[in-house]
């Protein structure tokens, strides 16, 4: 697996191109990501969204049109691709495949798992490929995603953090913002974040 990373836009949202078996998967093409994506793919297969916030899906439509590839998004966040709930002027895009809960897909011979960790958004998911998690805005290095946005849920975030604590396999984590980390490292601070979220409710 080869991973290319480029932070995009004011929020420096990480856009990833994951190449495995000579197939390119584009994860979270954010603000102004199109030109970088087009310059860095040779065999594009799909666009994968961890969740529906504007800074992760801004260039969905442009990349889809340019490359003629499908968009996969968690079903519970699909409305964000068309409704622009945060009022950012997000270009609309139409998902081709809606992911429900925890689901493993085989996309042109590559196994890709969406693991549902609601809280930041209703559909917020990590995308698991082999031993790597692309965690979107669920887990960051020593931090977690905000739970105070419209459609966020502190209660769901707590349940998702508890769910993450039960996973015994370690994964390298590439988050939606910032530097990479590991699941084992983040599991050491998850109890702190469960307490912080609980106090805010």
Describe the structure in your own words.
This protein is α/β, with parallel strands linked by helices and 201 residues long. It has one domain: Metallo-beta-lactamase, Chain A, CATH 3.60.15.10. Helices cover 25% and strands 32% of the residues. It has 7 helices and 14 strands. It has helices at 34-40, 54-57, 60-67, 80-83, 154-165, 183-187, 190-200; strands spanning 2-8, 13-20, 23-27, 44-48, 71-74, 97-99, 103-107, 110-116, 125-129, 132-136, 139-140, 143-144, 172-175, 181-182. A 6-stranded mixed beta sheet has the order 1-2-3-4-5-6, with helices on one face. Strand 5, helix 4 and strand 6 form a beta-alpha-beta unit.
Describe the SSE topology.
Elements: E1 2-8, E2 13-20, E3 23-27, H1 34-40, E4 44-48, H2 54-57, H3 60-67, E5 71-74, H4 80-83, E6 97-99, E7 103-107, E8 110-116, E9 125-129, E10 132-136, E11 139-140, E12 143-144, H5 154-165, E13 172-175, E14 181-182, H6 183-187, H7 190-200
Parallel strand pairs: 3-4, 4-5, 5-6, 10-13
Antiparallel strand pairs: 1-2, 2-3, 7-8, 8-9, 9-10, 11-12, 13-14
Helix pairs in contact: 5-7
The unreliable regions are none
Strand % is 25-35%
Report the strand count.
14
Class by helix and strand content?
alpha/beta
**Percent helix:** 25-40%
CATH topology: Metallo-beta-lactamase, Chain A
Domains, number: 1
Query: Main beta sheet: strand number and arrangement?
Result: 6 strands, mixed
Shape: globular
Query: Which architecture name does CATH use?
Result: 4-Layer Sandwich
Order of neighbouring strands in the sheet with most strands: 1-2-3-4-5-6
- What would CATH call the homologous superfamily? Ribonuclease Z/Hydroxyacylglutathione hydrolase-like
Mean pLDDT: 97
């Amino acid at each position: 697996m080869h991973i290319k990373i480029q932070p995009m836009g004011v929020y420096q949202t990480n856009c990833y191109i994951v190449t495995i078996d000579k197939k390119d998967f584009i994860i979270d093409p954010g603000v102004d990501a199109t030109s970088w994506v087009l310059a860095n793919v040779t065999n594009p297969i799909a666009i994968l969204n961890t969740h529906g916030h504007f800074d992760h899906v801004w260039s969905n439509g442009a990349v889809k049109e340019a490359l003629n590839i499908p968009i996969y998004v968690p079903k519970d966040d699909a409305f964000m691709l068309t409704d622009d709930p945060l009022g950012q002027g997000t270009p609309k895009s139409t998902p081709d495949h809606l992911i429900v809960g925890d689901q493993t897909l085989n996309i042109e011979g590559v196994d890709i798992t969406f693991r549902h960790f609601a809280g930041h958004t209703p559909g917020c998911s990590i995308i698991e490929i082999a031993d790597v998690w692309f965690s979107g805005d669920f887990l960051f290095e020593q931090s977690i995603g905000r739970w105070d946005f419209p459609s966020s849920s502190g209660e769901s975030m707590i349940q998702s953090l508890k769910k993450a604590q039960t996973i015994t396999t370690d994964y390298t984590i590439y988050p939606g913002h910032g530097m990479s980390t590991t699941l084992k490292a983040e599991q050491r601070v998850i109890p702190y974040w469960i307490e912080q979220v609980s106090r805010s409710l």
